[in-house]
Design brief:
The chain has about 725 residues and is of the alpha+beta class. The protein folds into three domains: about 100 residues, Sandwich (Immunoglobulin-like); about 250 residues, Alpha-Beta Barrel (TIM Barrel); about 220 residues, Jelly Rolls. Helices cover about 15% and strands about 30% of the residues. It has ten helices and 38 strands. The strands form seven sheets. It has an eight-stranded parallel β-sheet, covered by helices on one side. Strands 22, 24, 25, 27, 32, 33, 34 and 38 form an eight-stranded antiparallel β-sheet that branches. The longest helix has 19 residues. About 55% of the residues are buried.
C-alpha cells in the first residue's frame, strides 16, 4: 500500500468543497442495498453448478467483506407461472397440496443467510397458483382505471397462502422474513393490505413489515400515499411505502417524501434496473444507490437481479443486468461482471441499521454525489461517485462526533476496480482528498475489506452433445428440490416424480390449472441445451391422461421479451386421442404491441419485429391406437429446412420450413378444456434424448464431479396432501 496522504500536500489541487459530518446530527435508518432473486427462475442453472464453483459464486454475492457483500435479499414467492425469465414451483399447486421441498429458492436463501446472518429477507409474488380466490372473499382493487385484472389474487385465499409459505420458511428452514410485499407490479388493493396485515398478526408474523404497493408507472404508483393519510386502518397496515424507481429518470416526488415522513413510513425501492454493461454499469449502479437517497429519500434499494443462472438465449440473460453470470453450469465456468464491485462500494462499508447522517449526503459541486452512513458505534463510511464530473475536484471533510482515525480509501476507475489507495489522514477532525472524474470512492473508518475471488475459474465449454436424461440419477428427488439438471421451466412446474405404468422416476408437469400469471399467459414448457444447435433430433417419452396433450420442442431460439413467454421454434404435439400436430411457433401474435414495464416496451420497439406471429401449423394427422394411459415416444428431427415428426419411431408428419435454423430443445404440456374450464396437462415425460439424427443413443447423463444436491438429506416436512 502507498504512503498515507497528508492533507497539507494537497493545497495545489482544484478548489475544494467542504462537507461537515456531525455524529450527533442523526438521520433515517439505512435498510440496506441488495438484489432481487426471482422474476422467474433467474437462478435455475446456479443450482446445477459443481462445487467449489457454486459456493464461489454465492461467496462473491453474499459473504461479508469479500465481494458484493449485499445486505438485503428480495425473493419471488414462487407461483408456478411465468414471472419474466421463467417460473418457479409453488409450495401449493392446489388448495389441498402442501410441499416445502420444491425448488431451489429455499436453498439459496439458506445459503445466503448462512454466509451473512444479518442479511435481511423480503419478497412478494409475481405469479400465483390459479386456485387462489376461487373460494371465500375477494377484496377490492384500489387503483381506479389505471390497472384492472387478476381480481382473484386480492383475496383472503392469497393472504392465507402467503402465511403458509412463511410458515415453511420458519418451521422447515429456520428463517424469517423481515418484510413482505403485496404483489409485484399489479396495482393496489387496500382491502388486501388490511387483510394480509390481520392474517400475519393472527399467525405470529406480527414483526413482518408490510410494504405496498410496489408498482412502476410514475403517474399513479404513489397515489395510495394520499389515501393512507386519510385511512387509519390502511396506514396501520402498511409499514413501508414501496415502489419501483429507476433514477435519475424516476424519482419520488418531494410531496410524497414529505407525506411519508409525516406518517413515519420509510420509502423503499423494491426493484430498480440498471441495464448497463461493463464499467458504465458499475459506476451507474453506485450513482443510482446514491441518488435513491439524495433525490428520493429511499432507505433501501434492491436491484433486479443478482445472479444470472439462466440460458444466454433468454432475454435479460445477465450481461447488463446481473453481477455474476452463471449461465454455464455444465462447464463450471462463470463470470464476474464489473457491477459487482459497484455493490461492494456499499456492501463492504455499511450494514443494515446504520444511519444516513444528516448533512452528509448530497451533490458534489464538481459533479457527482456522496452519501454518508454511520454505525451505532460511530464508525462511518462515505460513498462517492463522480460519474458526470468533467474534471478532478477537491473534497474537505470536517468530522466531529464520529470515530477518530484515518480513513481507508478504496477507489474504482475504469482501469482498476475496487483497489485500496493510501489512507486519508484525519488531522484535527479534517481530511482532504482529490476526487478523479468518472470514479467511485468509499472512505471508511472500518477495516477488513478485500477484493475476493478465485484465479482458476474453469474454461467455458458448450452444452454436452449428445445428451440423454432418464431422470433416474436423482436419489431422493426432494434433496434436489424435485428439479433435474439443466431444464429451465419457462412456465408451469416440471418436477421429478414416480412414473405411472412403468418403474422409475419421470418428470411431471405438476400445476393443474392456469396460474394467475404475472405475464401474458401461454402453455407450460421447459427448455434445455444450446441455441446454436442446428441439425439434430430430440425425443421424449410422454404419458397422457384423458384430455391432455404434450409436445417435444426443437430449435427454440426465443422465450419471450420478459413480459410474455411465447417461444419461437417448433414443436410436435400429441393429444390423448392420437391427434398430432407439427407447429412452427412464432412468438406472440402482435409482436409490435408494447407491453410490460418501460424497459420491456423499449425493447419491443427496438426489435421492430413486423413478421407474423402466433402458431403456423405445418402438418397434422392422427396416430392410430393412441389413447389415454399409454406411453409414446415423440421425436422431432431437423435436417436443413426439413422437419420430421415421429411417434414410437415411425414417421407420421413432415414439412419444410425456413423460419428457424437453430435453437434449443424442450418439452411442453398443453392446455385443454374440462367442463368449460381451462386445465393444464399434467403430463409425464421420460427418456429425453438429444443427438444427431443418425447417431447412437448416448449413455444417461449423471451428476458431474462436484454436482451436489441442494439439501443434504431428506427433509422432515409436510408434503403431499394437506
Amino acid at each position: 500500500m502507498a504512503d498515507r496522504i497528508d492533507p497539507g500536500t494537497l493545497c495545489r489541487q482544484p478548489a475544494e468543497q467542504t462537507i461537515t459530518l456531525d455524529g450527533a446530527a442523526g438521520g433515517p435508518r439505512f435498510d440496506g442495498i441488495g438484489i432481487v432473486e426471482g422474476g422467474g427462475g433467474t437462478g435455475v442453472l446456479l443450482k446445477d453448478y459443481p462445487e467449489p464453483q457454486r459456493s464461489e459464486i454465492l461467496d462473491l454475492v453474499f459473504t461479508p467483506k469479500f465481494g458484493a457483500s449485499v445486505s438485503a435479499l428480495y425473493v419471488e414467492i414462487p407461483g408456478d407461472g411465468n414471472a419474466t425469465q421463467g417460473s418457479m414451483p409453488s409450495h401449493m399447486h392446489a388448495r389441498d397440496d402442501l410441499n416445502y421441498e420444491r425448488g431451489y429458492l429455499w436453498w439459496e436463501m439458506r445459503e445466503a443467510r448462512r454466509r451473512n446472518p444479518q442479511l435481511t429477507l423480503d419478497g412478494a409474488a409475481w405469479s400465483a397458483p390459479g386456485w387462489l380466490g376461487r373460494q371465500g372473499q375477494l377484496l377490492e382493487q384500489s387503483t381506479g382505471d389505471y390497472y384492472k385484472g387478476d381480481a382473484r389474487f386480492f383475496s383472503q385465499d392469497t393472504a392465507n397462502y402467503y402465511v403458509s409459505w412463511l410458515k415453511g420458511l420458519r418451521n422447515v428452514y429456520g428463517m424469517e422474513f423481515d418484510a413482505i410485499g403485496i404483489r409485484n407490479e399489479k396495482g393496489a388493493s387496500y382491502g388486501f393490505a388490511k387483510a394480509l396485515r390481520a392474517t400475519l398478526n393472527a399467525n405470529d408474523f406480527g414483526k413482518v413489515k408490510l410494504h405496498g404497493f410496489d408498482n412502476w408507472p410514475d403517474p399513479w404508483k404513489f397515489r395510495f400515499v394520499d389515501d393512507m393519510a386519510q385511512d387509519a386502518e390502511l396506514r396501520d397496515a402498511i409499514d413501508i411505502v414501496g415502489a419501483h424507481i429507476n433514477p435519475p429518470k424516476s424519482v419520488v416526488p418531494v410531496e410524497v417524501q414529505r407525506k411519508a415522513a409525516a406518517m413515519g413510513k420509510p420509502i423503499w425501492n423494491t426493484e430498480q434496473h440498471v441495464y448497463k454493461a461493463g464499467y458504465d454499469g458499475l459506476i451507474s449502479m453506485v450513482q443510482s444507490f446514491n441518488e435513491n437517497y439524495v433525490r428520493s429519500g429511499v432507505t433501501k434499494v434492491v436491484n433486479w437481479y443478482g445472479i444470472a443462472g439462466l440460458y444466454t438465449m433468454q432475454a435479460y440473460s445477465g450481461e447488463k443486468e446481473a453481477m455474476v453470470r452463471a449461465n454455464w453450469p455444465w462447464s463450471g465456468h462463470y463470470r464476474v461482471n464489473p457491477v459487482l464491485w459497484g455493490y461492494a462500494h456499499y456492501g463492504q462499508f455499511t450494514e443494515t441499521g446504520w444511519t444516513y447522517l444528516q448533512g452528509g449526503s448530497g451533490d458534489l459541486a464538481g459533479g457527482g454525489t456522496f452519501v454518508t452512513l454511520a454505525s451505532p458505534e460511530r464508525d462511518y463510511s462515505v460513498i462517492i461517485e463522480t460519474k458526470d464530473a468533467p474534471a478532478a475536484q477537491q473534497l474537505r471533510l470536517n468530522v466531529k462526533g464520529l470515530k477518530d482515525g484515518d480513513l481507508a480509501v478504496w477507489r474504482t476507475t475504469e482501469q482498476e476496480h475496487f483497489v485500496r489507495q493510501a489512507d486519508a489522514v484525519v488531522r484535527d477532525g479534517v481530511a482532504t482528498l482529490t476526487l478523479e472524474p468518472h470514479a467511485v470512492y468509499s472512505l471508511t473508518t472500518t477495516r477488513g475489506q478485500q477484493k475476493g475471488g478465485v484465479a482458476d475459474v474453469p474454461a467455458l465449454a458448450s452444452f454436452p452433445f449428445p445428451y440423454r436424461e432418464t431422470f433416474e440419477h436423482y436419489p431422493q428427488p426432494a434433496t434436489w428440490g424435485h428439479q433435474p439438471r439443466y431444464l429451465a421451466d419457462i412456465a408451469g412446474s416440471f418436477e421429478l416424480a414416480r412414473c405411472p405404468a412403468r418403474v422409475g422416476t419421470c418428470l411431471r408437469q405438476s400445476a393443474p390449472i392456469p396460474t394467475i400469471s404475472w405475464a401474458p399467459d401461454w402453455q407450460p414448457y421447459s427448455i434445455i441445451g444450446d441455441d446454436a444447435w442446428r441439425d439434430y433430433e430430440v425425443s421424449v417419452d410422454v404419458y397422457l391422461q384423458a384430455g391432455e396433450s404434450a409436445a417435444v420442442m426443437g430449435r427454440i431460439n426465443h422465450a419471450g421479451t420478459g413480459y410474455g413467454f411465447i417461444p419461437k421454434g417448433y414443436f410436435l404435439q400429441l393429444g390423448h386421442d392420437g391427434a398430432l400436430r407439427l407447429v412452427a411457433i412464432r412468438g406472440k401474435k402482435d409482436k409490435k404491441k408494447a407491453v410490460g414495464d418501460a424497459e420491456q416496451q423499449a425493447l419491443i420497439r427496438a426489435m421492430n419485429d413486423t413478421s407474423e406471429g402466433g402458431e403456423k401449423q405445418l402438418a397434422a394427422g392422427r396416430v392410430a391406437g393412441v389413447k389415454a394411459g399409454q406411453w409414446h415416444t415423440l421425436t422431432l428431427r431437423f435436417a436443413g429446412n426439413r422437419i420430421t415428426g415421429l411417434v414410437d419411431g415411425k414417421q407420421q408428419l413432415a414439412a419444410s420450413d425456413d423460419l428457424y435454423g437453430a435453437g434449443m430443445a424442450g418439452i411442453l404440456a398443453g392446455v385443454h378444456k374440462d367442463k368449460d374450464e381451462d386445465k393444464l396437462s399434467m403430463a409425464w415425460f421420460d427418456n429425453l434424448v438429444i443427438k444427431a439424427a443418425a447417431g447412437k443413443v448416448p449413455a444417461p447423463s449423471r451428476a458431474m464431479k462436484g454436482q451436489q444436491p441442494l439439501y443434504p438429506t431428506q427433509k422432515s416436512m409436510p408434503s403431499g396432501k394437506k
